[in-house]
Amino acid sequence: EITSLLSLCGGQFSGEQEIHVNSPFWILNIPSEEMARGLMKRTVCAKSIFELWGHGRSAEELYASLKNYPTDKMLPYLQSDSTYKVHIHTFNKTLTQAQKIKKIDALEFLPFKGKVNLKNPEHIFWILEDYGMNPNDVPEEPIHLYFGRWIADGQRELIESYSVKKRHFIGNTSMDACLSFIMANHGRVKPNDIVYDPFVGTGGLLISSAHFGAYVCGADIDYNTIHGLGKASRKNQKWRGPDENIRANLRQYGLEKYYLDALVADFSRPIWRKGMLFDAIITDPPYGIREAPRRMGSQKETLKSVERSTENHFFVSSSYHLSDIFFDLLKFGAEYLVMGGRLVYWLPIYRPEYTEEIIPRHPCLKLISNCEQMLSSHTSRRLITMEKVKEFKDQDETSYLLDGQYMPYRGHNSFREKYFSGVTKRIAKEEKDNQK
């Protein structure tokens, strides 16, 4: 998320970045405070950002680092007519108030001239201490210490204010608010973009993009979901109300002006005119756990597959393999994204069989990031972000079939069976353990 937002703001990671994979603290080289504030106006992963004045692996190293920090950079924030306070944040350890005061008093060598104001200071300084990631083995002294001036906080309050629990219209697979915002940030969604979700469901992914000023639209094969009809997903509510729909969700957050429309459409069949239409495609395709992957079938197919939706809408649905969904999705992104536009989607994985090689590829799309979210001990899903780097030509229509990228993911067509086989084994093991 941070990498995507830095590139959106015009910055980038340099080779000098100090990133501790097993640490909550990162040191970034950002060219301006304005860019740092822009970054924090979007991120839901980062809590706060600071101007780093000093750091070290011990208190002595931290103090030496602070003494080497240029005084002319400190002075604007330490004037006699200013107010300030110092916070202490410890990761993986709790300090007493007396310990905190002792650590603050140890910074008396800094040229603070202003007055302390604990309620409404002009400048806030933080001591950050990292005691490692293992709560069962907490060291006496921190393994990393940092001191800096607070600049801005991230947008973590969005997770609560956009919580699915408070949302007007939800479904069985409505995306968690935090993940929705992370996906929009991976897609580098910005004001006046056009963002499309081909498996829109109840529109959860449209909301995060609209929050960042993009115009949003979507499609789904399910007539009832698009029109907010049929059985409700909420407990103790049998049927959906007359105003439960995607538009009402955006209206709830004051974002209705960004809503273009949602279509009832089968993703496996082309409905759009040729051309680059979308700045970002952000979606969570169905993978057979709570929602079945399906597409329109022919009238020749068995009558058992005929489904009836509200208001006498009939369609013949047939199975839609996971591999086909994802390769259709990549082909769609390659064809309809603008140059530099991004495709962001979830890819379900059976972990014992996972390798990087099974990630679907397309010659027009470059893999930007691949992040894992665990679902169980043996399954997970990967958040895949791809960027369009090459204009789509007719020969790219089936190019993925030729380069060996199509076959590796086909083993995951049985993801549902593998997912539930693991659940069955776990239940059997728990029952066996309970009998002992």
From TrEMBL:
Its EC number is 2.1.1.214. The keyword Amino-acid biosynthesis does not apply. It is found in: Cytoplasm. Transmembrane segments: none annotated. GO terms for cellular component: cytoplasm; tRNA methyltransferase complex. Residues 166-294 form the Ribosomal RNA large subunit methyltransferase K/L-like methyltransferase domain. SUPFAM superfamilies: S-adenosyl-L-methionine-dependent methyltransferases. One of its GO terms (biological process) is tRNA processing. Residues 20-156 form the tRNA (guanine(10)-N(2))-methyltransferase TRMT11 N-terminal domain. Keywords: Cytoplasm, Methyltransferase, RNA-binding, S-adenosyl-L-methionine, Transferase, tRNA processing, tRNA-binding. InterPro entries: DNA_methylase_N6_adenine_CS, RlmKL-like_Mtase, SAM-dependent_MTases_sf, TRMT11, TRMT11_N. One of its GO terms (molecular function) is tRNA (guanine(10)-N2)-methyltransferase activity. It is an enzyme of class 2 (transferase). It catalyses: guanosine(10) in tRNA + S-adenosyl-L-methionine = N(2)-methylguanosine(10) in tRNA + S-adenosyl-L-homocysteine + H(+). Belongs to the class I-like SAM-binding methyltransferase superfamily. TRM11 methyltransferase family. Part of the heterodimeric TRMT11-TRM112 methyltransferase complex; this complex forms an active tRNA methyltransferase, where TRMT112 acts as an activator of the catalytic subunit TRMT11. Catalytic subunit of the TRMT11-TRM112 methyltransferase complex, that specifically mediates the S-adenosyl-L-methionine-dependent N(2)-methylation of guanosine nucleotide at position 10 (m2G10) in tRNAs. This is one of the major tRNA (guanine-N(2))-methyltransferases. This is tRNA (guanine(10)-N(2))-methyltransferase TRMT11. It comes from Promerops cafer. The lineage of its organism: Eukaryota, Metazoa, Chordata, Craniata, Vertebrata.
